[in-house]
Write a structure and sequence with these properties.
By secondary structure, this protein is α+β, with helices and mostly antiparallel strands. The protein is built from five helices and six strands. The strands form two sheets. The chain has a three-stranded antiparallel beta sheet, with no helix packed on it. Helix 2 packs across helix 4 and helix 4 crosses helix 5. The protein is elongated and about 80 Å long.
């Protein structure tokens, strides 16, 4: 099959990129007949979803506001969405929901969690929480009231 300009060989158990083959041998005494019930599109979709899910090896525990819950579909990897929603507890007294979000890596999670803005609080892992706290502090200095320290806070009126 050809997908996005790359040729693949699909077998019952796996998919192989043809450009990674180092050698191919033709066996004239062997024959292959495609299974008439084989649905290539369904097979590819299932394998692609399986592969994407396999990349989601880390987990982040977050509290999301009601607006954060609405943003979840736009922020999370689509392959992570079902698992994240299944892990969601009931909203707390402020309407915030705690859930576990599967992510590819802490670095990817950092970018995803920043997209939530103030609609998410990372509870775990602590290292990601610290990175986001640092980002929030830097944003506060950048967008906060003008500071006497050069390069900190908003520029004062008349300052380029």
């Amino acid at each position: 099959m050809l997908k996005a300009g790359v040729w693949y060989l699909a077998t019952r158990s796996a998919i192989y990129r043809v450009d990674r083959f180092s050698a191919v041998a033709v066996h004239a005494d062997r024959r292959f007949d495609r299974d008439r019930d084989f649905d290539l599109a369904a097979f590819w979709a299932a394998r692609a979803a399986e592969f994407t899910r396999s990349l989601l090896t880390a987990r982040v525990t977050v509290r999301l506001s009601p607006d954060g819950m609405r943003l979840l579909r736009h922020v999370a990897d689509p392959a992570a969405l079902d698992e994240a929603l299944a892990s969601a507890g009931e909203p707390d007294e402020q309407g915030w929901t705690t859930l576990v979000l599967p992510v590819e890596s802490p670095e990817v999670a950092y970018g995803q969690c920043l997209r939530f803005g103030p609609e998410a609080e990372v509870l775990d892992p602590p290292a990601l929480r610290a990175l986001l706290a640092d980002a929030a502090a830097r944003l506060s200095r950048l967008y906060g009231p003008p500071s006497a320290e050069p390069g900190r806070g908003r520029p004062s009126p008349g300052h380029p």
